């Protein structure tokens, strides 16, 4: 998957999470709710692309470029989990 397609997929996940939060009554729209939705979306993103079903994404499963992958790979194990993908969205997750 090229970086543009990957960005589109991630943007779709963010949009879906925001839509879910916006559908809630305004009294329950909290940062915690948004964070939970984003965590769920990131977990689905990993699960959908995880070809070998080990719960993590290799560079080829991730579909982005190596520079972006290496920047996200916090523990330098050559794989990304949902937690390591959070920095793509800043401090909102």
Q: Keywords, please?
A:
93 residues, mainly alpha, 0% strand
Description:
- The chain has 93 residues and is mostly helical.
- The chain has a single domain (3-92), classed as Orthogonal Bundle (Recoverin, domain 1), CATH 1.10.238.
- 58% of the residues lie in helices and 0% in strands.
- It has five helices and no strands.
- Helix 1 (3-22) runs antiparallel to helix 2.
- The longest helix is centred in the N-terminal third of the chain and has 20 residues, at 3-22.
- The protein is elongated.
- The mean pLDDT is 81.
Short structural description:
The protein is an all-alpha fold and 93 residues long. The chain is built from five helices and no strands.
Q: Give the terminus-to-terminus CA distance.
A: 24 Å
Q: Give the topology string: H per helix, E per strand.
A: HHHHH
Q: Helical stretch count?
A: 5
Please name the CATH topology: Recoverin, domain 1
Query: What's the Cα radius of gyration?
Result: 14 Å
Using DSSP, what is the number of strands?
A: 0
Supply the helix-strand structural class: mainly alpha
């Amino acid at each position: 998957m090229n970086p543009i397609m990957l960005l589109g997929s991630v943007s779709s996940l963010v949009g879906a999470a925001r839509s879910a939060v916006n559908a809630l009554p305004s009294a329950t729209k909290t940062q915690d709710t948004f964070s939970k939705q984003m965590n769920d979306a990131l977990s689905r993103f990993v699960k959908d692309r995880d070809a070998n079903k080990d719960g993590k994404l290799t560079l080829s499963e991730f579909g982005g470029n190596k520079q972006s992958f290496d920047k996200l790979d916090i523990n330098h194990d050559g794989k990304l989990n949902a937690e390591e993908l959070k920095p793509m969205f800043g401090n909102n997750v």
